Amino acid sequence: MDTAPTGDAGAAQQPDRGYRDNIAQIEPYGIDHIPDAERHGKASSQFFIWFAAGLNFPIMLLGFSAASLGLSLSAAIWAIIAGALIGSVAMGVMSRMGVHLGVPQQMQARGPLGFVGNLLPVAYINVFAGVGWAAVTIILGGKALGALIGVPFWVCAVVLAALQLTVAVFGYNMIHYLQRILTFVLFGLFLLVTIVALQRGSSVLEANPAASGYTGGAGGWVTLGGHFLAFLIAWLPFASDYSRYLPGTPRVSRDAGLFTAAGNFLTLSWLGITGAVLAGTTDSSDPITALKDLTGPWAVPAMLAILLSSFSQNFLNVYGGAISLQTLGLPLRRSTCVTLICVAALGVSLWAADGIYTSFEVFLNLTAYFIAPYVAVLLMDYYAGPRRDRSRLPELYDRGRVLEWGAVAWVVGTLSSVPFWNSSLYTGFIARAHPEWGEVSYYIGFAVGALVYLLTRGLPPLWHRSPGGQAAGATLPAGETPDVPHASGASKPRDASGASDTPGASGAPGTGNARDGRPGAELTTDRPGS
Q: Which helix (H) or strand (E) holds 66?
C-alpha cells in the first residue's frame, strides 16, 4: 500500500518496504527520499522511458511549421537538431540529479525556493500542466480509438483514463516495465508511418520570404528550434521522478544522464525532421486528420500508433502530476493523487474535445515560459549552490524554510521574459517590435533567473519560521551552539567546530544543520496536517 507524505521522515532512515523491482506491487513511496535498500535498476532504463514518451505524432506536426516560417529544408533540419539537443542535454542533467539525491524534481525545488516559494510554480507548472497535457493526450488517443472501433469519444476517453490511472497507481516499476515494451512497439509503428508518409508525399523546402510566418532566416531558425526546445522544457520538472530509484553511484548517474539525453534527442530529431520533409503535404492542423492524409490506406496502424503513444506519455503526465500534488503538502496518498489527476484530465478532455483543444494546447505551451527560469534556479542551486550535498536533504522536508531567494530569482526571471513572449495568445512588446529575433524568451528567462540566483545565494534566509520563535539567522549568545536535528526528531549538540555526528539521509553523510548551518535553525516537520 502506498503512503501519504511522511515529512522529514522522507529524508531520514526509511523502513525497508520491500519494493525493489517488484512490478506487481503498488509503489509505497511518494515524495519520500528513496533509501539505499530500495535503489535498483539500470541506467539504460532512462533511454526507454523517454524514447517511448517522445514517439508522439504532434512532434511531426511541429516540423510542419518549417514551411510557414519560410525556412529551407537544411535550415529547418539544423534548427530541429539544435532545439532537440539543448533540451535533451538539459533533460540528461536533471535526470542525473534524481539519481544522486533520490527525491523527485519538484521536491528538489523546495531547496532554493522554500516551501511556500515552491507552491505556485508546482501548482501551475506541474499540476496544471500535468492535467492539461494529460487531457490533450486523452483527446488524441480517444479520437484514434474511436476511429479504430467506431465508438463515441466519451467512451474511449473513459477507457483510456481508467487504464492510465491503473498503471500510474502501480507506479514507478510498472511504468518502467511498460515503457520498455512500448518502445519497441511504437518504434515499429512510427517507422511504418514515416516510410509510408514519405513515399506518399514529401517536399524539399526552399527559403520562402513570402511565407505567412516569415520573420527572416535567423528569426525563423530560432523560433523553429524553440518549438522543439519547448516540448522538452515541459518535461524538465519531472526528469528526476523516473531516475530517483537508480543506485546513487557516479557511474550510474553519468550513464543515466546520457541515456536520458539520447532517448529524447533521437525521437525529437527523427519525427521533427520527418515533419519538415513532409511540410506542405497536408493542410490540417488536427493530428488525426493530418495523419489520415499522410498515410492513406495505412491509416489503421497510424491510428494505433497515436493510441499507444497516448499511454507512453500519460503514464508520465499522471504520475508526475500526482507527485506534484504531494509536493504541495496535501496530506494525500499517492494513489489518491493519481486518481484526482486522472479525473481532472478526463473532465478537461471531455470539455475540450470539440474543436478547442488546439487553442488549449497553445495555452499550455505558455507554461514553458515559466519553466525555463524555474529550471535555471534548480540547476544553479545544484551546481553552484549546496544541493549536491546529500546531508542537506532534510531541508527539502522542512516547512519552516518558508521562502528562499530562489523564489525571487524565479519570479524575476519569468517577468524579464514576458516582453519577449511570442505566442498566438500573447506577444510581448519586444517580440512585436523585433520579430526578426525569433522566440528567445526561454533563453532570457533562464539567463536572468540564473543570474539573480547567483547574486542572492549568499544573502541571509528570506523567511524562515522557527518553532522556538527565534528567527532563522538570528545570533545566539556567545558560547552557545545550536542543536542539530536528528532523524528521529531529537536534537544532538554540535561540538565547538560546528561538526555533528548526526546520521543523515539513507546512504548520505550526517544531516548537519537543516538550515544552511545557521544558528537558530530547527527542523519543522512536513507531515500531513502539520
A: helix 57-68
Count CB atoms within 10 A of the CB of residue 45.
Answer: 22
Query: What angle is formed at CA 53 by the lines to CA 198 and CA 59, rounded to 5 degrees?
Result: 40
* Cell 513511496 found at: 29
Mean pLDDT across the chain: 85
Residue 87 near residue 228 (C-beta atoms within 8 A):
yes
- Share of the chain residues as helix, strand and coil, in percent rounded to the nearest 5: 60, 0, 35
Report the 10 Å Cβ neighbour count for 480.
Answer: 10
Q: In angstroms, rounded to a whole number, what is the distance separating the alpha carbons of residues 330 and 157? A: 27
Closest by CA to 128, choosing from 366, 417, 430, 431, is: 366
- 12 and 488 Cβ atoms separated by less than 8 Å: yes
Tell me, what DSSP letter sits at residue 402? E
Q: What is the mean pLDDT of residues 397-412?
A: 97
Query: In 3D, which of 242, 241, 138 has the Cα closest to residue 180?
Result: 242
Which residues lie across from 493 on neighbouring strands? 483
d(CA 368, CA 121): 11
Contact 320, 130 (CB under 8 A): yes
The Cβ of residue 468 has, within 10 Å, a number of other Cβ atoms equal to 8
Predicted pLDDT at 490: 35
